[in-house]
Amino acid sequence: TFILDFWLTIAWYDTRLRFPSNSARDVRLLDKNWFDEIWKPDVIIRNAREVDVLDEIVPNQAQKMLRDQV
């Protein structure tokens, strides 16, 4: 048995997201109000006997959009 705490960073392409064409920036940090509106892939841990996801008081999450739809 072992316990693992880790920080997970995931990236994906979503062709439905469009970067503002008049923006000079290559990265846009998204407001927290967007978190529930943007599709996010499910994370699966293969061969895990048990996985407990702890709910934090304030979820530690950030989303950014890159010009190439990542």
TrEMBL record:
Coiled coil: none annotated. Residues 3-50 form the Neurotransmitter-gated ion-channel ligand-binding domain. It comes from the Eukaryota. Pfam families: Neur_chan_LBD. InterPro entries: Neur_chan_lig-bd, Neur_chan_lig-bd_sf. This is Neurotransmitter-gated ion-channel ligand-binding domain-containing protein. It comes from Ilex paraguariensis.
